[in-house]
Write a structure and sequence with these properties.
This protein is mostly helical. The chain is built from ten helices and no strands.
Length: about 260
């Protein structure tokens, strides 16, 4: 477990630093806020791709959804833990440099408690999400499952499949490609992958459990301990919130495209 944690602690901050140097030398007209924002998105995409690959390996190898185990579950959970902590730091840096570009960093006192509070107020849901994964999901995965349910942990890993598409949307906007077919196609891919991998994954897991034990899907929740259902609802709730935000953004872009005058 410790070697995996150390690998993650070296890889993700190292990637972040490397991307910042590369982007700063490549896009010399970008501000620090632009560089940090895109670097954070690129690191998130790398983590998401690794998580998805680990999840697919786990899910496809576990025939018994309760008792089959795979070394990647504990291995990747340990490896990915430093990413969660680092991503909070990277999001804070992005917020700090954005406020600096806007000329607000002085009013917020630079790197200060006021700046941290402003960051938390802006990105409260994401910060809480990361902290819950780090302080609750990780200990449960490593120490309190008694070796059960690796299949379901793999499903949660696969939920990260949508992250690269969401990140790519932000990167395309930064590159000035928000009014292109690539951006629209990526937006559709982000919505579909988010809905399938972060919303439909929950009925899929219940269906897999019911299929193995001969229980109809609508009766599965009544055969599970209450804390399992409560935990799933707690994880599902922010996903629904973020999906609604994505839908609102997609609708705004659609309205903007419809409202743009056609050129002959």
């Amino acid at each position: 477990m410790l070697p995996a944690v150390l690998c993650g602690a070296l890889l993700f901050p190292g990637l972040f630093h490397g991307f910042r140097r590369l982007l700063r030398s490549t896009f010399t007209h970008w501000s620090d806020a632009d560089v940090v924002c895109v670097s954070e998105r690129l690191v998130s995409s790398v983590h998401a791709c690794l998580a998805t690959a680990a999840g697919v390996a786990v899910v496809t190898s576990c025939k018994d959804v309760m008792t089959d185990s795979h070394w990647l579950v504990n291995g990747f959970a340990s490896f990915g833990a430093p990413y969660m902590a680092h991503d909070i730091y990277a999001m804070y840096l992005s917020h700090y440099y954005t406020q600096k570009v806007k000329g607000h960093s002085g009013a917020l006192g630079g790197h200060s408690l006021r700046m941290a509070r402003a960051f938390f107020a802006k990105d409260r849901m994401l910060v809480i999400h990361h902290l819950v994964l780090l302080l609750l999901f990780l200990p449960v995965t490593l120490f309190y499952r008694r070796g059960l349910g690796d299949f379901f942990i793999g499903c949660f890993f696969i939920a990260e499949f949508s992250t690269p598409f969401v990140s790519m949307g932000k990167i395309l906007i930064q590159l000035g490609l928000d009014d292109t077919r690539l951006h629209r196609v990526n937006g559709v891919a982000a919505l579909l992958s988010f809905f399938v991998c972060r919303i439909l994954v929950f009925p899929f897991m219940y269906w897999c459990y019911g299929r193995q034990f001969g229980i109809p899907l609508h009766k599965v929740p009544f055969h599970l301990p209450p804390h399992c259902n409560v935990g799933n609802l707690a994880v599902l709730a922010p996903q629904v919130y973020w999906l609604l935000l994505l839908l609102k953004k997609a609708y705004r872009l659609y309205r903007r495209g419809r409202g743009r005058p056609k050129t002959s």
